[in-house]
Amino acid sequence: MVTISILPGTLLLLTLLTGFWLYKTGRPLNIPINTIHKLSAVAAVILTGRIVVSHLQSGKTMILEAIPVTIVAIGIILIFVSGAILSSSKPPKQAMKTIHRISTALIVISFITFQLLF
Ligand code: HEM
């Protein structure tokens, strides 16, 4: 069943758009955009997490769902660690940019998978 979770989806989109803005404008980082980027990321993760946890508690869980849940958990750890390092390191480390991009892809794919599964 497709469940459209508008608020977490909008926040994820806002995080992606501000991420691309940061990428385009480069250093020094635009502080208001960077702040929106971080706050919308935290809010999107919390709201999506609540949906996933309440679904897991409902008892309707399929073993298949453990795969995107695990992938997204790893992706969230990687994105927050790389994001924090990118926010403070001057110049930004290319390896951290690559980790931030790969974990972005993991999170977006998992989010779409959640929409299809939950
Ligand atoms: C769902 C969570 C997140 C998503 C989807 C996301 C996505 C993105 C994307 C697509 C970019 C542009 C990538 C690039 O530079 O090539 C970006 C850049 C950036 N993000 Fe995030 N991000 C997230 C969370 C965070 C968090 C939590 C932080 C900080 C703690 C953060 C800090 C940054 C910084 C500093 C940049 C600019 C990197 C640079 O170009 O130097 N991000 N993000």
Verbal overview:
Helix 1 runs antiparallel to helix 2 (31-57), helix 2 packs antiparallel against helix 3 and helix 3 (66-88) packs antiparallel against helix 4 (94-117). By secondary structure, the chain is mainly alpha-helical. 80% of the residues lie in helices and 0% in strands. It has helices spanning 6-25, 31-57, 66-88, 94-117. It binds protoporphyrin IX containing FE. Protoporphyrin IX containing FE binds at residues 15-16, 19-20, 22-23, 29, 34, 37-38, 41, 44, 79-80, 83-84, 86-87, 92, 97, 100-101, 104, 107.
Write a brief structural summary.
The chain is mainly alpha-helical and 118 residues long. The chain contains four helices and no strands. The protein has helices at residues 6-25, 31-57, 66-88, 94-117.
How do the helices and strands line up, and which of them pair or pack?
Elements lengths: L5 H20 L5 H27 L8 H23 L5 H24 L1
Helix pairs in contact: 1-2, 2-3, 3-4
The structure holds protoporphyrin IX containing FE.
Keywords, separated by commas or semicolons:
single chain; 118 residues; mainly alpha; 80% helix; 0% strand; elongated; binds protoporphyrin IX containing FE
